[in-house]
Write a structure and sequence with these properties.
By secondary structure, the chain is mainly alpha-helical. It is built from 42 helices and no strands. Helix 36 (about 630-640) packs antiparallel against helix 37. It starts with a helix and ends with a helix.
């Protein structure tokens, strides 16, 4: 980049883009002195009057100051910003930069004045309060609380100066402060109140205080319309009780007490059946229970109250996808997509990746691997196109002098595939390719040949007749699709066609071909490489890498993946499974080269500390006896190492006693899936017992609901639940 910038500067020395591009290249190479020298030379050529505000000149000065700060030239940076302060348009950035620099220079009194002014400008920015605390060097709790008290008096409507002290104070002081905070916000109907307090829920003492206070409010408001029965004066409006019930529903949902959460949200809906937030919350509770169909139903109810709200529309589509209702989700999104084009096509064209990543997961759950892989490849193509589309901005940003944003863009491109959407798509693609490697799909013609060999002439005739009818239906459906496609093509605008021609034809991804690739592991590696380069701090990257290399038989690459994962989290349950699989596989391979065997034994000796695998697994189980995820991994490996210990392994994996901490829906579903997928061999009866035990814990979770023939049985508990809640009836 430096050489290119220099050549462009020689060719076009009079153009400012050449100078700026050359300076940016030195900045990105961290040669700050040269970058600053070039920027200063260029700035001196700009003839801008001192009393005139010019946006492009302002951006140049702010960029110059950014380079100084990155070079740790804080004194020079402060002098620079003060010299050109009047010529900078973005006054807020100036104040923030000055506050940051003064803190680093130790000029705390001046920094405190800056942060006080910033708080006067925006009293809801938590970063300003953090900066003020650092500047004032407050050591005691009383001093910190006094500062917040003064600011809250100056800004009586601000939430932050009343909320932040709640992080600091314990015990009875907390009770007194949170009582005032809750009453004020519940009375005026502050709907994000729970979200504001959610960060306090890591402290069990504070949670119990909040619960005690708000449940008392609810009881008192029902009786006398006051927060306390000992109060007099003006009564609270009826909406206060509504917001108290809404808060309690969120509170108990957070604590995993879903029945109580449902009671409160149902009471709120009964009193006010037109408030969208209530239906939204009810859907959220069902989602956390693991009943995605009921969650989708209530989210649909919420969006029906305001069909013009895109956020609710998107949330409803997302919940439908979680319930594997792909067609319904597509129809929901079609309300806001372009007419004449299917919603799925338009969302792909618009690079709507939240929708696509949810679609991938839905198809994966349904076992439609070809459709899931198609979208994985489309998401991968989006990231390539995002990089490709930025070329227009290279000249534009330099021409318009938006240099700070331009540098951020260049840095984003370096780490673009770190984005969560890419990680989700890549992870799903790798998991699917691993499944296809373990259980390859046979071609349809081969499958028919295999099946026909075992059938009588009558059965074969019946099947062939059924196939002909299916083919006829498929043909009619295809013809209808063809007519619709032709109609859509006629409605498409001319400029869309021209744009498509200009961008060139894209490769079409065919699901049937994608799920029957010749070498699934090579395809998986294509998705893995960007993750290894850019998401190396995520343990899942290295464990996915291990799973690929394990199947390829690459022992040194397996060891590399394990070591990297071990450095991130040595107690990860998935890593534990990989360690045992790797050790057993390495010990059973006697034909490995001597050098490789030596390296493996040395490195694994450090991790296993010279213990045999069964003892290593027993120690892991003892160390993590209260974590269900760890118990599941340990039990799997117990059975893997010794098939005769199936009963013991199942006892460990299906533990649901009080000492086990993480008995949430997600973990219990993982255990039930492990009982079905062969991780413990054949254990159908144990699965049914476990399902019934989980159903008692989470009666609304659809995975744990009883089969149809059990519903009419003598289960008094189930009948009682069905009377109180309509969800079981709907599901069954």
């Amino acid at each position: 980049m430096e050489e290119t910038g220099y050549q462009l500067l020689q060719l076009r020395p009079t153009q400012r883009a050449s100078w700026i591009g050359y300076a940016i290249s030195y900045h990105l190479l961290k040669d700050y002195d040269m970058a600053l020298k070039l920027l200063e030379e260029f700035r001196q050529t700009q003839q801008v009057p001192v009393n005139k505000l010019d946006y492009e000149y302002s951006e140049l000065i702010l960029y110059q100051n950014q380079v100084m700060r990155e070079a740790n030239l804080f004194q020079e940076s402060l002098e620079h910003i003060e010299t050109y302060e009047k010529q900078i348009c973005d006054k807020l950035s100036v104040e923030e930069i000055k506050g940051e620099i003064l803190l680093k220079l130790g000029r705390l009194k001046e920094a405190s004045e800056i942060f006080k002014n910033l708080i006067d400008r925006n009293a809801e920015n938590w970063c300003y309060f953090e900066g003020l605390e650092k500047a004032l060097q407050l050591s005691t709790l009383e001093e910190r609380l006094k500062v917040y008290e003064e600011i809250s008096q100056q800004h009586p409507k601000a939430v932050a100066p009343r909320r932040l002290p709640l992080n600091l104070i314990p015990g009875e002081k907390f009770r007194e402060s949170v009582d005032k905070f809750l009453r004020a916000n519940l009375s005026k109907g502050y709907s994000p109140l729970f979200t504001t307090l959610k960060s306090l829920y890591c402290d069990t003492e504070k949670v119990s205080i909040i619960q005690e206070l708000v449940t008392k409010y609810e009881a008192s408001l029902k009786r006398c319309a006051f927060f306390s029965m000992y109060e007099t004066g003006e009564k609270e409006p009826p909406t206060t009780l509504l917001w108290v019930q809404y808060f309690l529903a969120q509170h108990f949902d957070k604590l995993g007490q879903y029945s109580l959460a449902l009671d409160y949200i149902n009471a709120a809906i009964t009193s006010t059946p037109t408030l969208i937030e209530l239906f939204y919350m009810k859907a959220k509770i069902y989602k956390h229970m693991g009943n995605f169909r009921e969650a989708a139903k209530w989210m649909d109810e919420a969006q029906s109250l305001d069909t013009a709200d895109r956020f609710l529309n998107s949330k409803c589509a997302k919940y439908m996808l979680r319930a594997n209702m792909i067609k319904a989700a597509e129809e929901m999104c079609s309300k806001f997509t372009r007419e004449g084009v299917s919603a799925m096509e338009n969302l792909n064209e618009m690079q709507c990746m939240w929708f696509q990543t949810e679609c991938i997961s839905a198809y994966q759950r349904l076992g439609r691997f070809g459709d899931a892989l198609k979208i994985c490849h489309e998401v991968e193509r989006h990231f390539f196109e995002i990089t490709d589309d930025q070329f227009d901005f290279h000249t534009y940003c330099i021409r318009k002098m938006t240099l700070r944003a331009y540098v951020d863009l260049l840095r984003l491109e370096d780490t673009l595939r770190r984005h969560v959407f890419y990680f989700k798509a890549a992870r799903s693609a790798i998991e699917i390719y691993l499944k296809l490697y373990d259980n390859p799909l046979t071609s349809e013609s081969k499958q028919q040949e295999i099946n026909s060999e075992n059938l009588s002439a009558k059965e074969l005739k019946k099947i062939l007749s059924k196939q002909r009818r299916t083919q006829k239906k498929a043909k009619l459906k295809e013809e209808r699709k063809h007519v619709e496609r032709e109609h859509q093509q006629k409605n498409q605008k001319k400029r869309d066609d021209e744009q498509e021609m200009a961008s060139g034809l894209k490769e079409e991804f065919i699901p049937e071909k994608l799920e029957r690739v010749e070498n699934p592991l090579e395809e998986a590696l294509k998705f893995l490489i960007p993750l290894k380069n850019l998401v190396a701090d995520n343990i899942d990257t290295h464990l996915l890498a291990f799973e690929i290399y394990f199947r390829k038989g690459k022992f040194l690459l397996m060891l590399q993946s394990i070591k990297r994962a071990f450095a991130i989290n040595s107690n990860n349950p998935w890593l534990h499974e990989c360690l045992i699989k790797f050790s057993k596989s390495a010990s059973s391979h006697s034909n490995l080269p001597d050098v490789v065997s030596k390296v493996l034994s040395q490195e694994m000796g450090k991790i296993l500390v010279n213990r045999d695998l069964e003892n290593f697994n027993e120690d892991f189980l003892k160390r993590n006896s209260t974590s269900l995820q760890h118990l599941l991994s340990g039990a799997k490996m117990m059975y893997f190492l010794d098939k005769s210990r199936q009963e013991k392994a199942l006892t460990v994996a299906t533990r649901l006693d009080e000492t086990v901490k993480d008995k949430n829906v997600k973990t219990l579903i993982k255990v039930s899936e492990a009982l079905l997928d062969g991780s413990f061999g054949n254990c159908g009866s144990q699965y049914e017992e476990y399902r019934m035990a989980c159903h008692k814990l989470f009666p609304f979770t659809s995975v744990f609901l009883p089969a149809l023939n059990e519903v009419h049985g003598p289960s008094a508990t189930l009948n009682c639940i069905a009377d109180n809640y309509d969800v079981l009836t709907n599901e069954i």
